[in-house]
Amino acid sequence: MKIAGIDVHKKVLMVVIVDGSAPEEKPTRRRFATMPSQLHQLLIWLQGQGVEEAVMESTAQYWRSVWLELEPHMRLHLAQAFSNRAPRGRKHDFKDAERLVRRQIANELILSFVPNGEQRIWRSMTRMKLQLTRDRVRLQNQMECLLEEMRIKLSIVVSNLLGASGLRILQALAQGETDPKKLAELGDERLQCTEEQLVDALTGRVQPMHREMLSLQLQRLQLIDQQMAQLNGMIAQAMKAHQDAVIRLAEVPGLGVDSAQQIIAEVGAQASTFPSAAELTSWVGTCPGKEESAEQNRRVARRRAINICGEY
């Protein structure tokens, strides 16, 4: 069986074909660009060479278009880049591609988990929502920093700066209201502070530039909230067939619907890719590492948990 190794770059692909039944023979080499027409030519060439399997490195995001072009036609493997490192001073594009194939034949590569097309869509949506959540937190911190410049201590007396009371006060500030008593009247009765404390916290020095900046931040906040609401509907529709799994997982203490959707998007509705719970926790990065030398086991901290925004 012929196996192709693809060294992926932003603009070019270095492709090497090795015959698995005769690995000692000189491999076939060819260079391709990464434009769509060239990716189609790559597919035609590989099929003409009788290639049934291909392996590539997870280079940034550039491997995705190659994967999507070849996925329907052959078996693919995505190798973690550090498992295919070359000795210092011996790095070469075609050699890197050849090394990928030979290490794959020898089972020396660490392969990444690439889910099916449906699950990839789930991941894209849940990761986008997670990024928007982080953007919202970052925006809240920027608002609080701006309030400090105004000498307004609203976050001390309001537990949630972007809650109902906090937003009403912020919008009034952005519209030009500066009277602390009138601003305090916009606070909810359930606030855990007295009216005097709220008035004191809202007594600051607001400049016109502060109001304009706050108005821009509130517009960004509104856009983020709208996009998150839209994503909620998209995710619910995409996972409609697995709604029972989402509901059961959301009932676990400490989880909710958002967490359940994110977990299912990452590991699948059945987590069938992982033969055991131990392998799942190892992939996630929540189990301790192991390092043995001369029959001595040394304590190793667990690896860092996966970054769910960076890979399929």
Description:
The protein is an alpha/beta fold and 312 residues long. The chain is 49% helix and 14% strand. It contains twelve helices and seven strands. The protein has helices at 36-48, 63-70, 93-105, 117-149, 154-157, 164-174, 180-184, 195-201, 208-238, 243-250, 257-267, 277-284, and strands at 2-8, 12-19, 28-33, 51-57, 75-79, 289-293, 296-300. Strands 3-2-1-4-5 form a five-stranded mixed sheet. Strand 1 (2-8) and strand 2 (12-19) form a beta hairpin. Helix 6 (164-174) crosses helix 9 and helix 10 packs across helix 11 (257-267). The longest helix is centred in the middle third of the chain and has 33 residues, at 117-149. The protein is elongated, with a radius of gyration of 27 Å. The model has no long low-confidence stretch (mean pLDDT 88).
Number of strands: 7
Oligomer: single chain
Q: Which stretches are low in confidence, meaning pLDDT under 50 for 5 or more residues running?
A: none
Total DSSP helices: 12
In helices, the fraction of residues equals: 40-55%
- Average pLDDT score: 88
The biggest sheet amounts to:
5 strands, mixed
Class inferred from helices and paired strands: alpha/beta
Q: Judging from the principal axes of the Cα atoms, what is the shape? A: elongated
Strand order of the largest sheet: 3-2-1-4-5
What is the ordering of alpha helices and beta strands? EEEHEHEHHHHHHHHHHEE
Amount of beta strand: 5-15%
Q: Report how far the terminal alpha carbons are from each other.
A: 27 Å
Q: Please give the radius of gyration in angstroms.
A: 27 Å
